[in-house]
Amino acid sequence: MSITSQATLRGAVFTRPTALTQSALVLGGTAFLAAMAQISIPVPGSPVPVTGQTLGALLLASAYGAGLGLTTFATYLLVGIAGAPFFANGTHGWARLAGATGGYLVGMLLATALTGWLASRKWDRKLQTSVITMLAGEVVIFASGLIWLEHATGASFSKLLAMGFTPFIFGEAIKIAIASTSLPLIWKFLPTRAKN
User: Fold this and answer.
1) For residues 67 and 5, what is the distance between their CA atoms, to the nearest angstrom?
2) How far from the centroid of its chain's Cα atoms is residue 110's Cα?
3) Whose CA is closest to 106, among 73, 130, 64?
4) What is the DSSP letter of 101?
5) In the predicted model, what is the mean pLDDT of residues 111-134?
């Protein structure tokens, strides 16, 4: 096992992972992301809803690390594209990824890699670095989402911000607070030998 996988929560809990353990984590993580996506609140005037999905992506990436986190999020996307009602409001299919909200999904995939990589370097263990980690993940998600949304809608910059960024600031701040406080707290209660 590499040193970076041991530095994640997954590595601390599953010190000797097997193919069965890894498969179970991918399936469990995919189900977790699907459940978080169902926490969905429509935003008037925007094709993008507020969902629990971004919080799920940040937590999963930090707990799993970049490799397993990326594999899990990619599995979630593929299963949703294939027809499972895993995306927000029980939607599915290629049109969801190709549509106005697809950039946020792609952004979450990319953020999973970045957030997981930072977590494997122990950035999820202290509040200060955990906040930076989660904020970096959110920047990737929204940068990708806004670029894609502009391409899909052709909206002006001000309209783009009104549809795809401004309505989400408060909710994303809460998600960052939840993720960046819960992970250091979990690490605090792990036995010392698991933290190395």
Assistant:
1) 8
2) 9
3) 73
4) T
5) 96
Nearest to 144 by CA among 105, 171, 95, 97: 105
Domain residues for the domain of 112 are: 3-195
Whole-number pLDDT of residue 191: 76
Count how many domains the chain has.
1
The pTM is what? 0.92
Distance CA 160, CA 149 (A): 7
- Tally the C-alpha atoms within 13 A of residue 105's C-alpha that lie toward its C-beta: 27
- Report the C-alpha gap between 86 and 166 in whole angstroms: 25
- The CATH number that applies at residue 147 is 1.10.1760.20
Instruction: Tell whether the model's pLDDT for residue 3 goes beyond 50.
Output: no
pLDDT for res 190:
84
DSSP result, 36-77: HHT-EE--TT-SPPEESHHHHHHHHHHHH-HHHHHHHHHHHH
pLDDT on residue 107? 98
